[in-house]
Amino acid sequence: MSLSRSVVHGSMSCALGLEADLRRELLQLTCQPVACAVELIDRDEGLFPEEMSVVRNAAWKRRAEFAAGRSAARRALGQMSVPDQAIPKGNFGEPIWPTGYGGSISHDDPFAAAIVHPIKASTSALSIDLIDTSDLARYWEVSHLVRAAGEPSEITSDPRSAALLFGAKEAAIKLISPRAQCYVGFERLVATRTNRGFKIRCAYTNTCILVRVFESNGIIVSLGVLDCQGSPVG
User: What's 5-121's CATH class?
Assistant: First the structure.
């Protein structure tokens, strides 16, 4: 399965634009070293055997998403002089990074993105979530499942606001669930709007996540931040 040359060229240009905007936002969000990469979801190649075992029986689209995400992760790690290696999948769907590194992977047609940072006692944990803006109706349809008790109905007043809330909570879940060692659902996350996104409090762990939201090249990007003490940063 492949894309036409003109579609690939246009999509690659958008991927480069998205990557540049992501790098700029990360520089504004945190002072710690962070690498990022964006890949086009267009092939199911380049996986290590340990990674292929995760998606061996999946449909082509799922394999291509997974491959693009791992490719982006390896390219981001390469920016920190980490050699190519397998990035397995954890119990909560999270990537298992090389020792000394942390980060996050997300994908939504037509892109996959990864952010990577060294882990030190003073650093923050980061996460990313992508949402393609070409079909926001799906988020409106499930908004009643995403909104938690205590959140005003206005927080999901239209498809776009529903997508913004969904992406922000997904970014928070990626930070909270592996640390809580259980899946923390939308209903346990209470969001309030901020100037640049959301502050999300987890009723289960009493943790707060700051999520910065921006849009680039048709993609809503949510960047979650948790400092080493579990307090919001920024």
Answer: alpha beta
